[in-house]
Each structure stands twice: as C-alpha cells, then as structure tokens.
Amino acid sequence: MNRVFVLGSINIDISMETDGFPVIGETMLGGSVDYYMGGKGGNQAVAAARIGGRVSLTASVGGDTFGEKALEHLRAEGVDTRFVTVKDGAFTGIASIFRIHSDNAIIVFPGANMLLSETAELVEAFNDKDLFVAQLEVPLETIRQGLYYAKKTNVQTIIDPAPFHADIVNMLDKIDIITPNETEFEGLIGHTLKEQDMEEAMLEWAENHDTQLIVTRGSQGVSYVFDGEVRTISAVKDIEVLDTTGAGDTFTGTLAAFLAEGMPYETAIETANICAALSTTKIGAQTGMPTRAELRHFK
C-alpha cells in the first residue's frame, strides 16, 4: 500500500465545556475539562492510520512531558514518527478548546510547531504513488519546501488551508487538491459569499486553477467540482453530534488514505465525509475518528 506523508502540527488539546464566553474582566465557571492529543498534523495522521493507511508524520514537539506523551500516543496509533523532531528548550504546542453546545472555538499556542524547518529528508522516502498532506499550523516556508520536494518526486499533494493564510494562493501550482471549509474558501477567493453564490464561485475558481477544489460545509455536507460541475454530498444524518473538533482533519486525513489505496476520487470524498461525521460522535479531536471496522459497520 502507498504511504501518506503528513507534514504538520502536534498539540495537546485542553478542552473545556462552557455555556458562553466571558467578556473582558469577567470570570465564568466552566463545565468539564479534558486533555486530548491533537494538532492538525497529528489529527490527520491518526485519522489516516485508523482507517488503515500507512502514515508517516513530519512534525516537531518540545522536550517536555507533553512531547513524550504525544510521541507515545502516535506510535500506539501506528503512525511512523521517525521524521518527528524533539526541540529541547521548547514547549509542545497547546490548543485551548472551548466547547459551546454542538460547536467549538479554539485558541492555539504553536510552541515547537513553529520550529519545524527541515523537510529535505522526505525526498529519499517518497514514492511517486504516495500522497503528501499539509495544513497551515507550521511555518509557511516549511510547507513550501514540503510541496517542492513532493512535486519534485511526482507525489500527489493535498492542502487543508487552516488556519487560513493568504500566502497559500502563491503555492497553488504545487497543490493538487485543496480542502477549505467555507470561511477558508472565502479567503481563497478574496471576498465573502452569500449561500446562493457558492456554486458559481466554486465553478469560477475551478476554471482559473488546476487545483482540485473540495469545500467542507459542516451540516450541509461537502461540495466539490468534478467534470465542470459542482457536486454536493449531503451531511450524514441520524448521528448525535457531541464535538466537531477534528472533523475537518478527519475528512482530509481519511481522504488521503483512501486515495493512497487507489479508491476512486468521488468515492473517496463520499467515504471521507462519512468518517468526518462519525468523528463528531465523541468528545476530542482524535477520540471519535473511526477505524475501518467502524466504518464498515456504519455503512
């Protein structure tokens, strides 16, 4: 089986349940608090591995207890961590997640993630049938390097442009598939959208770019451009949504795994959409990410 190479962040997620946000100067009591393994890179790597993919992760952690626990967890999930570096004197990244009803808000301290700088060693590991996946929680120059080396060896590339940075548009010539949510898609096109403008904007964008576009739309499912038209897969019904943290990462990670194993493009999108939905049924970014057996049982 071909391999998925993920370049991205590793965080420890501190997740707190709350009824709302305090204003400046106000103190509120929260509900439950939990600690989870996260970071968009770690999330996507675990999502791909859970579904049966062969996954290698390039990332950085701090020389602290959180870093040790993160590496131990990733290895237990079957993720190859030989490209993860330990940065002594730095702190492992931390994400503070505030769960409000069925949605969330997140503040990220990047820590060692912003010290990730070397990707040249990936050239020796790449096979031209592999996939390269990245997000934007590590330095943009490092992502640029990873894309360069991936395309140098004819590796297919997928970018999840989150958290959004406008400079990603300057890398589109090396991106085969991009998976923004609706807000990130607005960043790509440079203006806000009304609901009725979505399909028109996607078609216009696709006409001007070779990069394949897939927009994740939460409760409205997933839309993508294929054969000159916008196709939408509805959101999965009849599931209890407990936590949407990591749903987008689950989509991108499992999409990469399915494509790496040779699944047809549209089937891979549809199946990744199911995986993303299943991931919302438990608290924590990685906790609900489905295994292959759980996916088969649901389908």
Automatic annotation (TrEMBL):
- Name the coiled-coil region(s): none
- EC number in record: 2.7.1.15
In terms of Pfam families, this protein maps to: PfkB
UniProt keyword Nucleotide-binding, yes or no? yes
| Cofactor-binding details, from the entry | Requires a divalent cation, most likely magnesium in vivo, as an electrophilic catalyst to aid phosphoryl group transfer. It is the chelate of the metal and the nucleotide that is the actual substrate.
Q: How is its activity regulated?
A: Activated by a monovalent cation that binds near, but not in, the active site. The most likely occupant of the site in vivo is potassium. Ion binding induces a conformational change that may alter substrate affinity.
Domain (Carbohydrate kinase PfkB) spans: 1-292
Asked if the keyword Cell membrane belongs to this entry, the reply reads: no
Pathway membership of this protein?
A: Carbohydrate metabolism; D-ribose degradation; D-ribose 5-phosphate from beta-D-ribopyranose: step 2/2
Give me the reactions it catalyses.
D-ribose + ATP = D-ribose 5-phosphate + ADP + H(+)
Q: Where, by residue number, is the active site?
A: 249
Could you tell me the keywords of this UniProt record?
ATP-binding, Carbohydrate metabolism, Cytoplasm, Kinase, Magnesium, Metal-binding, Nucleotide-binding, Potassium, Transferase
Which residues of the sequence carry a binding annotation for ATP? 181, 216-221, 248-249, 273
* Residues holding substrate: 11-13, 39-43, 137, 249
Q: Which cofactor does it need?
A: Mg(2+)
Positions of K(+) binding: 243, 245, 279, 282, 284
* Matching InterPro entries: PfkB_dom, Ribo/fructo_kinase, Ribokinase, Ribokinase-like
The places in or outside the cell where this protein is found are: Cytoplasm
Function as written in the Swiss-Prot or TrEMBL entry: Catalyzes the phosphorylation of ribose at O-5 in a reaction requiring ATP and magnesium. The resulting D-ribose-5-phosphate can then be used either for sythesis of nucleotides, histidine, and tryptophan, or as a component of the pentose phosphate pathway.
The UniProt similarity line reads: Belongs to the carbohydrate kinase PfkB family. Ribokinase subfamily.
Assembly: Homodimer.
**Name the record gives this protein:** Ribokinase
Q: What is the organism of origin for this protein?
A: Enterococcus larvae
